[in-house]
Amino acid sequence: SAAEQLSGFICNGKDTLFDQRYFITAIWVWTLAVLAVFEWGYQIDLTDLALLAASFNGFLGFIIGLRINLCYGRWWEGRCLWGKQIFASIELMQQSASWIDDTKLYDTTRRYIVLFAFACKALLRDEPFCSTKKDQRLLLHGIVPLTTAEEVRNINDLAGWLPYFCLEVLRKTVTKAAQQSADLKSDNGLANFQFLQMNSLITDLATCIGGSIRVKNAPMPLNTTLILKFLIFVTLSMNPFLLYDLLGLAGTMGVNFGLTIVYNLLTGLANELEQPFGHDLGDLNLEAFCQAILSQVSAVHERRQYALVVSEDG
Amino acid sequence: SAAEQLSGFICNGKDTLFDQRYFITAIWVWTLAVLAVFEWGYQIDLTDLALLAASFNGFLGFIIGLRINLCYGRWWEGRCLWGKQIFASIELMQQSASWIDDTKLYDTTRRYIVLFAFACKALLRDEPFCSTKKDQRLLLHGIVPLTTAEEVRNINDLAGWLPYFCLEVLRKTVTKAAQQSADLKSDNGLANFQFLQMNSLITDLATCIGGSIRVKNAPMPLNTTLILKFLIFVTLSMNPFLLYDLLGLAGTMGVNFGLTIVYNLLTGLANELEQPFGHDLGDLNLEAFCQAILSQVSAVHERRQYALVVSEDG
Amino acid sequence: SAAEQLSGFICNGKDTLFDQRYFITAIWVWTLAVLAVFEWGYQIDLTDLALLAASFNGFLGFIIGLRINLCYGRWWEGRCLWGKQIFASIELMQQSASWIDDTKLYDTTRRYIVLFAFACKALLRDEPFCSTKKDQRLLLHGIVPLTTAEEVRNINDLAGWLPYFCLEVLRKTVTKAAQQSADLKSDNGLANFQFLQMNSLITDLATCIGGSIRVKNAPMPLNTTLILKFLIFVTLSMNPFLLYDLLGLAGTMGVNFGLTIVYNLLTGLANELEQPFGHDLGDLNLEAFCQAILSQVSAVHERRQYALVVSEDG
Amino acid sequence: SAAEQLSGFICNGKDTLFDQRYFITAIWVWTLAVLAVFEWGYQIDLTDLALLAASFNGFLGFIIGLRINLCYGRWWEGRCLWGKQIFASIELMQQSASWIDDTKLYDTTRRYIVLFAFACKALLRDEPFCSTKKDQRLLLHGIVPLTTAEEVRNINDLAGWLPYFCLEVLRKTVTKAAQQSADLKSDNGLANFQFLQMNSLITDLATCIGGSIRVKNAPMPLNTTLILKFLIFVTLSMNPFLLYDLLGLAGTMGVNFGLTIVYNLLTGLANELEQPFGHDLGDLNLEAFCQAILSQVSAVHERRQYALVVSEDG
Amino acid sequence: SAAEQLSGFICNGKDTLFDQRYFITAIWVWTLAVLAVFEWGYQIDLTDLALLAASFNGFLGFIIGLRINLCYGRWWEGRCLWGKQIFASIELMQQSASWIDDTKLYDTTRRYIVLFAFACKALLRDEPFCSTKKDQRLLLHGIVPLTTAEEVRNINDLAGWLPYFCLEVLRKTVTKAAQQSADLKSDNGLANFQFLQMNSLITDLATCIGGSIRVKNAPMPLNTTLILKFLIFVTLSMNPFLLYDLLGLAGTMGVNFGLTIVYNLLTGLANELEQPFGHDLGDLNLEAFCQAILSQVSAVHERRQYALVVSEDG
Known about the structure:
5 copies of one chain form a homopentamer.
Chain A: H1 2-10, H2 20-39, H3 50-99, H4 103-124, H5 133-139, H6 149-157, H7 162-184, H8 190-217, H9 222-274, H10 286-313
């Protein structure tokens, strides 16, 4: 699998601009052609240029390093956003368990916190909501089903980004819980402050999915990719001229073929880190995140009585 | 288009200091002059200086890399600000849909959230509000028009930055909604907390446009650009002296012509990233952002009834 | 111990991919084999390639430096999260000491602030709660025991992440304190604002443990590690070819053996910084952090009366 | 002006440690002396050392690059703080225009938001408040004067940092507005929430000027500047020894004279970026910022009636 | 003093691992020994290795540069935390001056804001509170003494971190002020919101001292220091072998002695920046910060009446 992954990088066919296999082939053919001309005796006067080659390739490495760093920054931002989402979901569930007394409203909250996570996953992967076998098993056919096939259909029929719909349901539910609470014990305004806190958490959840959509929809500007491609192309095309005198036939071939692969590896890595929400080996494991939310939300639900007892008995 | 883009970078006539075409021409003429003198036999005693050339050009590459990194930071900041603006707009719309009962106030809010986005676009591009065909089609001639030609005229007649005017309308409307709400159900203060949350979102919107104006109006200090130009000029002027002995006529010409183009490509890229709100290929697609706000706000409006039903029925 | 540590890095057997001892052995055997072939007269035509070796190894060093920088960022983030946790715990304790009058609720708060810290430590180290001798001495057998063996058993039996359970108890307790307070002096809403502040601190504590879990569970993407390994492997395998002409037998052996060790040292350091919550020499001293929370919480408890006197007498 | 600027950098007499003109002169005299000794035949045995010179100067360039990066960070921080200040001022003005009904209090707020900006400018430039011709024209002799000569005298007689005095006036005024509002419509607490929001903005303004004072008063530690000077001095002093064999008389002179100028250019740039609040070409244009606040605050004042109409008529 | 400082860096005896003087001596003795063996004719076959030396020393410089950058980040964080503390102290004082009417409570607040700053300084420098002559002059023997010798004794007798005690007093005082205020004008809840704001500022102060303690108590992981020492040691030990052929006796001695000093200078600088709260030349001037708080708090106190007049008269 690691070998597949490596070969996948080197010959990554999903490149946005043009097929990397053609790129590698072109560079290699060019290298062979230049070397053939040199070997057959037609030599232009270019001697001892290895220093130039080292400078050009070194500068290219520096630029590629910068790009990997920026793309890693995006990957890490995606990871942090999902980390924040997991913990905001747990906290919203904890506050619901502590403060919402009405069973129906509490259940709606509990269900939609989990549905929100799966809706985010679906949106970020351009899939319909709850369309994979695994999601259906977890949400529809669990011991306590969290949704119904009909509700899934209804949700998928709605317009706009689905995670936001879940947030609208959560907001409405929390508002209603606060209103009921405020109606009952109107002599102190505590429920209002609880409403404020729960609403802030819903805003946090909105920030998380908003940030993830931004990471997904904001590839680095096309220019940077174009120019990097251009620089790689120029450098690799010039290498046979610059290296032939020093390295001879075998050495030049080896070095330039090797560099072609290494540059493709590194730009392939950068491309993959740039889009952290896919299905590749290095991408974020959104399934595991959704399951973590599901299981921790269930654990809060189970611990609900015990926490109440402890806080009362000291 | 990619080729146009590349040639546009290399001969970018819009440079703030002086025309890059003159710059390239000057460097090339100078290179040819120095080489001609060398070829015609007048040689000063400068041998084996390629190492110096490599050091100078390497240091220049490092400085240019730093500048690209800083300019990319500005581009990314612009992108993040618009991302935040999109999601704050959606959230403000969601809260309006949940909490504002008065139809008129709700409609004003809905309209001005969208108008704010288009006003931001107009301000950042130094255009009048709603002046492009596409904007007019979306705002004036949609199925449900969001504004009228008269209102557009009135808004364009106002003094100051127009997006702030939209925020003033939103703030007034939200205040009025809270006052009505508070008057009606004065026995609990829930509406006040809702007012607090909506007002915070309006502040978020103000922060977004404020940050975008800052990015637009704060080019990097003139000194840095001047000094970078100076260093590029000195390095490229010295290159023919340093490289002639090693590379000969053809090699020196090739390398120095090539480096002139590469440096112009990279500084052109940096210049473009520095101003992310224009119409260039790599600039932020403000039209798409405005349309995203328009369509998601409409989607929230459409889902309004269904969200209410779900939150009540569990 | 420093020597052990160094040798531990060089031959770090806990590597996730494959045993580093095999890696070093393989490289060394390969180096010796290549050199043996060269010494016995079979020479391919590769002369004066030290410049290439310097470029490759330099680029590798740059990449390794980037990785150490990123991993150090994770270590520092872990440190900052625990710093924030310590000070949020002290502050929550201070607010409890100032604002909660009911002795029982105050005691529960005081106990669970400390238990939360130890639960975090246990979770981050994959140990059961309060399972080490030292923890038991501090929590069970102190002058004022903070928990009982039975409670520890009960807590360990609960589902989900235990630190969150502590937060649930704290939240319930704070809510109850605010309700009592509000019931008694319902003529001003001060208790509600105190509730808001204490709840924000509990959210801060949740953010801290959430962030720590993220740092623990989000290793850098497997690709980056794989590719770095691959680059190190290629570079070290090529070194004997490139260096033999310049350095001869002894020099090549010395340099390549040395580089193998240095690269393993640096990647070992990066690996260790990547996971800051373990038991290694450079890892964060979670025991000391827990003890700091324990002792400062006790100090706030002791100073409680004196602070009251000072604030009244001026 | 660009030429003046460049020469100003090279011979920047305002250096904190010692006069840069002496520095350049010393290095050039030293270079000439060493070269004279070499030319007159006394040669010590140092051949082919250009590589060392390249390494030393390259490392120096890396360190200088880091310093420029850090200093640019300070410049950008200063720019961001003023950006935030502009937008917090506008927003505070908007909220005043929406929520403060009492004309006198509203006028005081409007005046002191502008005075605060000019007081910040004066403090950051170590000038008395409203002492320049341009400030007096804008504040005293406008169509609607914002202050009087007497008030300016009174303010300048006060102790401490003047911007903070403006904030005290704003805070008092806002408090009074909230009290009046609360007295009148005590049946709902909306004015309290408005007070909360306006107070947060005043805190934002305090954060901005606080950050600016920090940037102004926190030069980089003296050690770093000292050590950098020391490294530049050592490198430039060693260059003639290392370069003479390779470059000969003219080359060494040219390169070392040129490097002296380039290093001074770059450190001069760093020094200027380090203190962004002065009067130099690259410094922040505080006058323009103050004028932006003045004109936008006036625009909000003018739009006040129209915003009210729109929010009511929809 | 600059010379002392420089020599202090080079022979910094306070190094945590072992005395730097021994380190320098050892390297120099080793260099001389290796050179003596070479001069006396016993030569092993290592020619033309200057390129390797340049690579090794260049990589080392890169790593040292990274470390200086990280340590500077800590210094700057310490500076920012104290900047925030100064401005949060002034703002808390302003709010007290505006909102607390009771003279006794107002005085306690005013006194403890200043005492907090001096307690922070004492804690960060491991000194008892108010133990230096200068502190006693400012706090005990000023025109208006801020504390008494007895109170200083009492405070020093308390357990735990003293700055937190000051915060407890401030919190209690503010709570009492809010309660009195709320009791008197219970018909509007404005005092509650003032309480909220003042409490947030106390939390800000706690964050500042918490962050400073973290910076002080979190040296970089021991491993990084160890490995850097190891790399410096190896590089400097290998230099004589690699440089002798190129540089000869005098050149090798000069370069290696010089590099020893430069590396010690730079690591010494990094060590000093790592601990920004000491008494060294480059450390933060905590005395000046405390005095700034003292004088600005006094200025707010003096301006109190005038600000009231202005806000009333417009």
